[in-house]
Amino acid sequence: MENIQNKVVIITGASSGIGEATAKLLAQNGAKVVLAARREERLNAIVNEIKQGGGEAVSVKADVISAEDMQKLAKFALNTYGRIDVWVNNAGVMPSSRLHELRVGEWDQMIDVNIKGVLYGIAAVLPAMREQQSGHIINLSSTAGYQVSPTNAVYAATKFAVRAISEGLRLEESSASRIRSTLIAPGLTKTELFDSITSPEVQTIANQLSGVGISPYSIARAIAFAINEPDDTLISEIMVRPTALP
After folding, report:
1. Which residue of the set 120, 146, 155, 217 is catalytic?
2. Is 217 a catalytic residue?
3. Is residue 78 exposed (0-12), middle (13-18) or buried (19+ Cβ within 10 Å)?
4. Starting at the edge strand that comes first in sequence, how are the strands of the sheet with 135-140 ordered?
5. The whole model's pTM is what?
6. What residue ranges define each of the domains in the chain, with the CATH number in brackets?
7. Across 142-153, average pLDDT
C-alpha cells in the first residue's frame, strides 16, 4: 500500500459503516484522513481511535446536503495539509419503499444526499485538484445502480445517477487534469443504511437479509486498492457483493 502513504483523503459519511472502515484502513496504511459527517461525537471517537493506533486523522462536522459545508470541508483540508489527494463521496441514505406509498419526503432525502451530496463534494474539491493537476474522486454507488428491483426505484435511480456522474467526470478530467474517477458499487453490506427504512414491507425484507451482508471492510479494501494503484492507472469501477446472494 505504498501509494497510499501520506495521501490526504477526505471521507464523507465517515461516522460509521463503510466510511469508518475506510478511514481506519487508510490511516493504518499511512494516509492522512479527514473524516466528515453530522455526528460530531462519533467522529471524535473514531479520530481518537486512529490516533491511538499511530495514524493521522482529523474531523469536521459537515452535512453533504449543504454545498457550503462541503466547501468548508475542502478548505479545512487545504488549510491543514496544503492539498487534497482523494475525496471519497461515501455518505448515502436508503429509505426504500414502493412508489405507491408516496413517501415523497424520503424521495427528496435520497435525491439530496445521494445525488446532490455527490455533486457538492465534486464541486468543493475539483478546483483544487485541477490546480494540482492530480487527484482522485471516489463515488459510492451500489449494485442497485445497475439493476432496479421492486421497492427501490428511487434509491436505484439515485445510484444510476452516481454512475453517470462518475463516468462524466472520468471523461472530462482524466486526460485534461489527470484526475481519476472511480465508482465503487457495494452489494448488501452491514451498515446503518437499513436504519432509515420506514416502510414496514421493506423493513421486513431487510431483516430477512441482514445476516447475509458483508463487512464494510470488504468495501474499504476495494477503495484502498483503487487508491493504491499508480497514478497512471485508473480503476474506473469495482463491484463488491456477498457470495451468498444471486
Report:
1. 155
2. no
3. middle
4. 56-61, 32-37, 8-12, 86-89, 135-140, 179-186, 237-240
5. 0.96
6. 8-239 (3.40.50.720)
7. 97
